[in-house]
Every structure is written in C-alpha cells, then in structure tokens.
C-alpha cells in the first residue's frame, strides 16, 4: 500500500501583495506559477525595521517592486538564498540594485558538488555568487531576528534552509514542500544526500516549515517521515521493475508514475535516475551497460 503523504495545497493570497503570516514573518508571492513552482515563488521577509529577505525569486521587476513596496520605510539588511534555481536567486541582482544588503548562501550553483570534484552542468543561476558563504550551524543575526543555517543538500548541492530561532520556524526552500515532493536531478541533485538531509530535520525541534512554494507545514516531522517512506517506496518500485524484466529507466517511468501526466515524465525520469544512483551506491543494483538515463540496470548478486 502506497504511503499517504499529508499534502497541503490550500493557500489564500494575492500576487504582489504582502501578507503577515506569523509574528515577524511576511510573504510576497511572485506571479510565476507552474508545474514546479505551484502558485509561484514565496519571498519571505523576516523582522521589522531592518529586515532579512529570503529568496528574492525570479528575474521579475514586478515582484521586486512588490517586495520594495511592502518595505517602504524599512531597510533590507540581509538577503538569504536557499539555492540557485532560476525561481529563487536571480531576483537578488535586481534587489541589490536598489539596496546595499549582502547576500548569504552556501555558494554558487553546484558548489556542494564542485567541492567533491564533480562537474555540474545542469541549468541554474550561474551568475549568482553570494557575498557571504555560510555553512551548517552558522548564525546570522538581525535587529529583532536570529537565523541558524541548516545545510540540506539533495535537491541541489548548495541547498540551505534557514531556521528563525524566535519562532522555531524553518524556511525550507524546495527541500520540503507541502504541495509536492521535490525534484532530485543528478548530477547536482543527489538522492543519498537528500535522504540524509531529511533525516537531519527529524533531529531538530522546528515547529513549522515555510517552503518557498505553497503553504506552511505545521506537522513537520510527520511530513518528513512520509517523504522518507515515499523515497524508499520508489526504490522498491525500481527493484520490482528489474525483477519484472524492465531494465531501462525510460520504461520504468510509466509503470512507476501511472498517475502522473506524460509531460512530467522527463522530470520523473530524473528522479528515478537519482534513486537508481542511490541503489547503485548501496550495491543493491549494478549498471549492466551504458550509463545514466540510457543505461540498463540489474540487481546486484551480492
């Protein structure tokens, strides 16, 4: 029986309008809806007076204007970036054109893999370089807010969550979302890292998650456990496919994602590849021939 993920998709908002969603937390949602962004990128504002902006979003002047309009009479002191996909970090450049706030992030696109000597060629915001590189456990302080950096590679190798200590609230970027699972696409995406990052969150005491897309998650540990079980279920589906004589990822996808529209199959194939890489790493599967999406896979004899 398939694991039941407690999805949360109900969200009331107006594009371009700021909303106070919790004490010391405001949000403006960009008008960039889509199959990977849900209603759009939610940019968060932390604190009052001198504030932090989390994920300025896409290269969209209307969205930047909405953020600035929400902060009339206030000052942006910090810009925090969860990761460098095109719906998260490009807005930094437009925002910094009108304020002198520095950016804080793990590093440029692919930084976590480049450290391991792995070349990343997947699409991302290749122009973004943070003014300050942050690492797991680093503390960033504002006038009335304190943020702890929580490194969560997997969706991307430079993915960083930010924990607002005053509210025990974790801004999860695309690592954990309420409306959908996250795409994990090699080589920058890594399923082993992703699962380790989910396990890390289970050790924390955050009370609420605020993803960049969609509504908050107010029972975070139940949600994270369901995500872990879901990924384990996907791995078992791959094993089942191989046992049934299906050895190629392209042929596994329709069998594994029968409730998914076909236009999403390429993205699904990337996630299957990530799960396959993890199975190979654990020596449960071997590459019989070829590689990547074009490879043929068999169960390991050991």
Task: Explain the layout of strands and helices.
Blueprint (H helix, E strand, L loop, with lengths): L18 E4 L2 E5 L12 E5 L3 E5 L6 H10 L4 E6 L10 H6 L6 E3 L5 H4 L17 E2 L5 E3 L4 E6 L8 E5 L4 E5 L17 H12 L5 E4 L8 H24 L5 H8 L8 H17 L3 E5 L6 E4 L3
Parallel strand pairs: 4-5, 5-6, 6-7, 11-12
Antiparallel strand pairs: 1-2, 2-3, 3-4, 8-9, 9-10, 10-11, 13-14
Helix pairs in contact: 4-5, 5-7, 6-7
Number of strands: 14
Query: How many domains?
Result: 2
**End-to-end Cα distance:** 28 Å
Please tell me the CATH architecture of the largest domain by its name: 4-Layer Sandwich
Give start-end ranges of low-pLDDT stretches.
none
Structural category is alpha/beta
Order of helices and strands: EEEEHEHEHEEEEEHEHHHEE
- Contiguous helical run count: 7
Average pLDDT? 96
How helical, in percent, are the residues? 25-40%
> Any idea what the radius of gyration is?
20 Å
CATH topology grouping of the largest domain: Metallo-beta-lactamase, Chain A
CATH homologous superfamily heading of the largest domain: Ribonuclease Z/Hydroxyacylglutathione hydrolase-like
Strand content: 15-25%
Shape summary:
elongated
Spatial strand arrangement across the major sheet: 1-2-3-4-5-6-7
Largest beta sheet, briefly? 7 strands, mixed
Q: What does it look like?
A:
The chain has 302 residues and is α/β, with parallel strands linked by helices. 27% of the residues lie in helices and 21% in strands. The strands form 3 sheets. A 7-stranded mixed sheet has the order 1-2-3-4-5-6-7, with helices on one face. It has a 5-stranded mixed sheet with strand order 8-9-10-11-12, with no helix packed on it. Strands 13-14 form a two-stranded antiparallel sheet. The longest helix is centred in the last third of the chain and has 24 residues, at 220-243. The mean pLDDT is 96.
């Amino acid at each position: 029986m398939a694991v039941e993920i407690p999805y949360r998709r109900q969200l009331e908002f107006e594009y371009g309008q700021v909303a106070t969603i919790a004490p010391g937390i405001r949000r403006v949602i960009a008008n960039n809806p889509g199959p990977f962004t849900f209603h759009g990128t939610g940019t968060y504002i932390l604190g009052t007076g001198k504030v932090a902006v989390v994920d300025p979003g896409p290269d969209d002047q209307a969205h930047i204007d909405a953020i600035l309009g929400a902060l009339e009479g206030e000052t942006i002191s910090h810009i925090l970036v969860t990761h460098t996909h095109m719906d998260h970090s490009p807005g930094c450049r437009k925002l910094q054109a009108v304020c002198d706030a520095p950016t804080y992030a793990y590093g440029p696109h692919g930084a976590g893999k480049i450290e391991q000597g792995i070349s990343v060629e997947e699409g991302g915001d290749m122009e973004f370089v943070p003014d300050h590189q942050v690492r797991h456990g680093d503390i960033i302080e504002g006038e009335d807010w304190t943020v702890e950096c929580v490194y969560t590679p997997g969706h991307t190798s430079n993915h960083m969550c930010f924990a607002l200590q005053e509210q025990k609230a974790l801004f999860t970027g695309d690592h954990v979302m309420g409306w959908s699972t996250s795409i994990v696409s090699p080589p920058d995406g890594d399923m082993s890292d992703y699962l380790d990052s989910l396990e890390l969150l289970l050790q924390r005491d955050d009370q609420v998650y605020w993803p960049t897309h969609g509504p908050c998650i107010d029972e975070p540990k139940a949600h994270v456990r369901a995500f872990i079980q879901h990924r384990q279920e996907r791995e078992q589906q791959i094993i089942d496919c191989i046992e049934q004589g299906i050895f190629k990822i392209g042929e596994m996808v329709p069998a594994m994602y029968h409730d998914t529209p076909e236009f999403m199959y390429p993205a699904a194939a990337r996630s299957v590849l990530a799960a396959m890489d993890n199975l190979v790493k654990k020596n449960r599967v071997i590459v019989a021939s070829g590689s990547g999406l074009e490879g043929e896979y068999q169960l390991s004899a050991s």
